[in-house]
Amino acid sequence: MALSVRYYLFPEGSDPLRLSQRLVEGLTHGKDPMPQYADTRQRVMGVVVQNEDGKPTHLDRTYGTMWTFNEDGEIREGLQEAVFEAMNSVAVQSPSDTVVSIRPQLSKKRFAEKFRWEPSAADINRVIQDLWPKQKADRLKEAKGVSQRKPALTFEAKHTLDKISAGFWEISHAIEALKEPSLRGFAFEARKRASEDLEHRHLYNALAEAAVDRLELLKRQKTGKGIWYAVLEVIMTRPEGFSETTQVYHERCDGRDAAVVATRKLLVRHAELFNDYTDLEASVMTDLEWEVMAYLD
Questions:
Q1: Which fold has domain 227-296?
Q2: Mean pLDDT highest for which of 49-53, 150-154, 253-257?
Q3: How many beta carbons lie within 10 A of that of residue 83, not counting itself?
């Protein structure tokens, strides 16, 4: 039998709410916030069930976790913090170590206190009623995010989009290779062609916008003016051997020089995070670059 996980939100002082898989995915990927829970910590129960023909047949186990919602009702930062704390609670001992550190045990206790809770029998029974309702009142209400339900992506639509976008990197690479005078001429000519070739005007206008964005980036990098960001990435090496960014600290600054100073302060402030399996990577960038960073998707 296949296993799946259902999620339930347990707001303080009100009935539990069922979380759809679409909403959970939207929350974890930063696409669908829940502003009604902004700046709060909420109890969430994970329910692992066995399924047959897409329907739950048996309750396998449950667990309680805490979700931290930021001021916008998003949970990604809280999840990243939980992952970091979880990794810190894992003992990594070198063969040459002769003294066993108590830090992992303390971190594990702190992690449990901050990110775990124990569902009661009543909580579990309420979820069971929702999974296998005997009457209409047994069904729990579904929690709502803010994003609209997306239309179905058909095979033909996905295939066409993949085929068209496969060459995007070549376009970006070609535009990035142009110097400023060439970029200005490129943008002007693309707009001119958009007004003449109406059938492809949207494509020409997109090329012009890409060139204008590149010009603005080169200008910012040359002058150091405008909005810049101080960025500190926490990069953790997993036991499996791969590395990933688990947390990103940043500060919005007025100009590159201010961003450099702020980055140094971030390094000092978070220096204790560095250890034998956690690296700190500092950088400064314009707001144009910051907006397209992968961890903001």
A1: Mth169; Chain: A , (3.30.1280)
A2: 253-257
A3: 15
